[in-house]
Amino acid sequence: MSAAAPQAKPAPTPPRAMMKAGTQHDSSDDVLRVLAAFGVEHICSTLPSTKLDEHWSAEGLTRLRERVESHGIKLDMVPLPMSSNYITSMETPGIMLGKSPERGREIDGICQMIRNAASAGIPALKYNLSILGVVRTEPTRGRGGCQYSTFVYDRARQDPPLTEAGLVSQDDYWERITYFVERVIPVAEEYKVKMACHPHDPGMPRDKGFRGVHTVLGSVDGLKRFIDIHPSSYHGLNFCQGTVSEMLQDPGREIFDVIRYFGTRRKIFNVHFRNIRGHFLNFQETFPDDGDVNMIAAMRVYKEVGYDGMIMPDHVPKIAGDTDGHQAFAFAFGYIQALIQLVRQET
Q1: Right CATH number for 20-345 from 3.10.20.600, 3.20.20.150, 3.20.20.70, 3.40.190.10?
Q2: How confident is the model at residue 16, as a pLDDT?
Q3: Of 86, 148, 258, 289, which is most buried by a Cβ count within 10 Å?
């Protein structure tokens, strides 16, 4: 009887891509050296320029990428001049002011920035669709006497003036968002650049809004509607876990299924990994280990859904004597690195 032929060994399973620590910090050479020492090897740079100029040319963006790479760091993302500022301080206000002559010109500029980013080898861009900016009330005392950024709707001025955008109903806001998405995402698809939109921070009462503005990207339902505007693998979220937690009545229980919803649909392109204490319309932004969300459990859910992008700090508390928040950010980087290492080792 002849010997049985040896069975071929199964091919080894390739390692699963994993998330990595990232940042949207200052991208100067001095800061890049510190990030490299921290083991932060992926970043979103600072804004190259507030307008379409030589810094946004393919050559200018290539120089930026090459300078970042010279520190052993990959430039995964760049912010568009569509920040979370109040409308009059936003770099491209015409996009959110609606049917104005500037809207088309500004969107054309954004489309060219997408093309130039692709030419420079930059795979993703982040942006906001903001009118109110980031609204907060007075800060409150946190651990060790630091200051936690805080929002309590009932303490906000209840008869504030309208913004320069005037009354912006839900329908108005959706028209402006949809107009932008339908003109920009096809360009992003063509050039294979992911577009990551940040939610409205914070969400406001749906029936009232704030200062005449209804923040339609300030709820989970609104974010679900947003990603459905244009079905594309290049249309997704700069998923600010802190901001999404602010939308929830019980973030310590609810946030995990929200991560699963967007994560399983591959709509999370970047993560702002911060914690809060409180709930919708009444919260503090805490250190990552001092809030209501179990951040270890959250990191495990990102792994569960196969997220492989950046996990970055955001909105750190203010510590007395900590110029520019460097100490608070260093704490957050170490915390994130430890959690990534923990879940990477788990089967």
Answers
A1: 3.20.20.150
A2: 59
A3: 148
